Amino acid sequence: MDPSKTLNHLHFFLPTFVLCYCMILQSVYTSNLDYKQLVYNHCANQTSEDHTTVSLSSILPALFQELLEHSTKSKFFETNAGNDKVAVSGLFQCRGDLSNKDCYSCVNKLPEVSNKLCSQSLPARVQLSGCSIHYRADGVQTSGLQLLHKSCSGQTGSLGFPERRDAAFASVQECIMSGQGFCEEICESIHVMAQCDGNLGACDCGECVNTAVEIAQETCGYSVSGEIYLDGCFVSYKYQGNEFNGDWNEDKGSFGRNSNKLIAIVIGGIAVVLTGAGLCYFCRSWGRKKDGKYNSVDYVRGLMSPNLPSISIFQQYTSNWQPLYVVPHQLLITNAF
């Protein structure tokens, strides 16, 4: 066998193995990322007056379209739209870990949900898992610290869990205070995310996240997951271990989804390794032409000739003939014997 030729084949196939495995990981991750799930919506109790409603029916589609166009290249955008009767200020925000493609896909879902849930209400806010939209009468200011939504898991951790969660909170708070608008940390098996609206400065962002953390600590207690949404930021945490009471089965199968993802990753890895081993074996067999009665040209020719009975290929290592493998009936080996 010519080692240089086999090495050349491996140089070709090895990057292919790595690429296939990365694609499997990305596919599994994307399929489990439900960033279009509705978290909450806030709509005005009453719709606008008749003349305002008529104006909004033409203003909101234009506003949505402008926001959507910017979602292909930005995670945050704020703009104004209106006419001589009413002016509307609107913005969208995507979660910092989404790609531009996923951000666009998420924002593209917002107008549909907003029209269904809020109709012509003003102000209105819709929050999906991966993005949000907020529009209001132009000139109206918000505090940024108003609590909009909170949720705590019914499943609780054991003694010592709050301390571990608070350590994870401290890690993400430190990240936010360094000037990052989006931070994601895993500490003590607890996954924590925090993000501020793109129009908040570093100090305001830090204050908002600190407030959200305090609310989570006070209201969620021993809950192994929770999310707090304020007007200007959000904080969420989720325990990812399995030592607390039933592997967190109560929270709508969150651990079931993680287990399925892990199983898919493992199966994908095994498939890639087996494929690689098969191709390596093929490369080795391909290189043994100097001692055998067949060669790679004959093998390729055989692939082009169907409808022949199965035959065994033999290779002489010393003075003995031993079967190497059985070729299906589609193969024709011109000088095997």
TrEMBL record:
Which InterPro entries does the annotation name? Answer: Cell2Cell_Antifungal (IPR051378), GNK2 (IPR002902), GNK2_sf (IPR038408)
Task: Give one Pfam family, short name only.
Answer: Stress-antifung
The record's subcellular locations are: Cell junction, Plasmodesma; Cell membrane
The record's annotation in PROSITE patterns points to: GNK2 (PS51473)
Write the record's keywords in alphabetical order, separated by commas.
Cell junction, Disulfide bond, Host-virus interaction, Membrane, Repeat, Signal, Transmembrane, Transmembrane helix
Q: Tell me what organism the protein belongs to.
A: Coffea canephora (Robusta coffee)
Q: Could you tell me what this protein is called?
A: Gnk2-homologous domain-containing protein
- Bilayer topology annotation: Single-pass type I membrane protein
Q: Which residues form the Gnk2-homologous domain?
A: 37-140, 143-242
